[in-house]
# Entry
Amino acid sequence: MAGSLGDKAGGIRSLRDLIRRHGRALEADLRSEYGVRLRDLFTGDLTWRELASYVDGLPPGSRVRTALNDGRAEPTAEAVLLADVFDMLQNVDWHIVASNIDKKSNLPKIPRPYPRWWMKPARSKTDGSERVARLEAARERRRERAEAIAEGRIA
# Structure
């Protein structure tokens, strides 16, 4: 969570930014998880240090963590383990089927891993030709615009 808040010079500044950006979510989480009100920070009943401790201790499914992840909920430990177990069972099943199949038959498709929404998708490896084509198209548009300006067709 500390990395989400930002590793800035002071923790109070990060907490102020969190309150400014996601105050409603923080207010709801503090109330539901700890029975504390955010307004207690301004009345003196809650210190900045206590608030930082509460924010660091929020569970993965909390509103603040979801808001900091652009609306995607963080996975729980159980979700990660279940995805790993699912993948392992799929692979074991594939190996059993592949080892007991006739040599003349085609092998079954290798199973796809369980979708992990919490991980960023791997970038596809391309030869760069698509990027080069986009750059060339942009250069051509720039040349055409320069010509049109020189001829007085556009300002």
In short: The two ends are 51 Å apart (CA to CA).
